[in-house]
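User: tokens in, sequence out, please.
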């Protein structure tokens, strides 16, 4: 992944130093600029602190994780052939990137 200079707004597109700016870097398959990365790190620290201090947030997170896992399992069973095809396609994509010397996202 390429590294942008500090303060670069090329990929951020007006969202420099925000979560959206960070996401735009990731979607562009590049390392986030320093300001976007620093903002996301600070945001994640705040979220972890909130998660550790609030039992309601932890319970909601637990419920959502379990629900997502059940839904994922159900979809995998319901669409088994499509799922296997998608997995094979993604493995092939990863192997192609490795063979071409690119970093995986």
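Assistant: Sequence out:
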């Amino acid at each position: 992944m390429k590294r942008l200079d500090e303060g670069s707004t090329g990929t951020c597109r007006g969202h420099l130093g925000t979560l959206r700016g960070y996401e735009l870097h990731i979607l562009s398959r590049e390392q986030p600029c320093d300001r976007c990365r620093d903002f996301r790190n600070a945001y994640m620290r705040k979220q972890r602190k909130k998660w550790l201090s609030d039992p309601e947030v932890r319970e909601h997170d637990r419920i959502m994780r379990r629900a997502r896992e059940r839904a994922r399992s159900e979809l995998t069973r319901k669409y088994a052939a499509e799922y296997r095809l998608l997995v094979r396609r993604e493995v092939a994509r990863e192997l192609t990137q490795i063979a071409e010397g690119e970093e995986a996202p």
